[in-house]
Design goal:
23% of the residues lie in helices and 24% in strands. By secondary structure, the chain is α/β, with parallel strands linked by helices. It has one domain (3-278): Nitrilase/N-carbamoyl-D-aminoacid amidohydrolase. The protein has a 6-stranded mixed sheet. Helix 1 (17-33) runs parallel beside helix 3 and helix 4 (159-167) packs parallel to helix 5.
Length: 293
């Protein structure tokens, strides 16, 4: 059995970058002690997603570069611990910062830089620069190589996000998060995993953080097992609201066998019939008007 051990760092941030660096390193080391192969942070860990009820220029000034000492410290730590790390940050970027995830493999090599595509433009995130693409990389872990993609929080609300990652080969999608994980959002994650036969690991802030409630989760993407009657629950981890490290073991062999034999994902799609999805010229009277119009 090929089990990939995922550590979701459902932890509360401090006020300063230095506090978050120190606490982040501490919890990564604790995750390694738990046998983790990959540790994932909640959304925008570098400054704790503190962008609401504050002057825009104040929180934008907290942006750091992808090559900053903060980010490089986690690359060095990944190499030291021999454990992949997904670190999140408010990233410096021309004109306006980005909401970014950077993944290092167990050798400390930077393998993925993903900026949130679906920024929450109805609120404070309209002052961010959206990402331009969905990224997938082959991540070297102690369990061997695994194809990993990324979404961030509101990206979950759009089926196209996970669909594109699946089409690019993702077996596991990492989802840093900073919002209440209630039944509908959890249902979205469950659906994205089911329809794409893709594992999805989401790391949220604990309930002590405003507008968050924990609930970090892992869905393994496997709805049916050989010889079983009916479907199974693909949720292999559902955290409560407390602060801590939540560990899930993802069976890669099971997932890969399932993807080779089941009917979802890319097996029976009709993409030539989906043109309306990317037609920006059509009228959409039933959709909320863009605030920028």
């Amino acid at each position: 059995m090929n089990l990939l051990k995922l550590a979701l760092l459902q932890i509360a941030p401090g006020i300063t970058l230095e506090e978050n660096l120190k606490k982040g390193i501490h919890y990564c080391k604790k995750a390694k002690e738990c046998g983790a192969d990959l540790a994932l942070f909640p959304e925008m860990w570098s400054q704790g997603y503190r962008i609401y009820d504050r002057p825009v220029r104040e929180w934008q000034a907290e942006a750091i570069s992808a090559g900053s000492d903060f980010v490089r410290a986690f690359g060095n730590l990944a190499r030291e611990l021999h454990m992949a790390i997904g670190i999140t940050l408010l990233e410096q970027y021309p004109n306006a910062p980005r909401n970014t995830l950077i993944v290092f493999d167990r050798f400390g090599e930077q393998k993925l830089v993903y900026a949130k595509v679906h920024t929450c433009d109805f609120d404070a995130e309209r002052h961010l620069t959206p990402g331009e693409d969905f990224c997938v990389t082959t991540l070297d872990t102690a369990c061997g190589k695994v194809c990993v993609g990324a979404m961030i929080c509101f990206d979950r609300e759009f089926p196209e996000s996970a669909r594109i990652l699946m089409l690019k080969g993702a077996e596991l999608i990492l989802v840093p998060n900073a919002c209440p994980m209630e039944i509908n959002r959890l249902s979205q994650l469950r659906a994205r995993a089911y329809e794409n036969m893709t594992a999805i690991a989401t790391c949220n802030y604990p309930e002590t953080v405003p507008d968050c409630n924990g609930g970090s989760s892992v869905f393994d993407g496997v709805a049916y097992l050989p010889g079983s009657d009916g479907s199974r629950d693909a949720c292999i981890l559902q955290a409560d609201g407390t602060e801590g490290i939540f560990i899930a073991e993802l069976d890669l062999e099971q997932l890969r066998s399932y993807r080779e034999n089941e009917v979802h994902g890319n097996a029976y799609r009709h993409p030539k019939k989906y043109g309306l999805l990317v037609d920006t010229a059509i009228d959409k009277p039933f959709i909320r008007k863009d605030y920028r119009e």
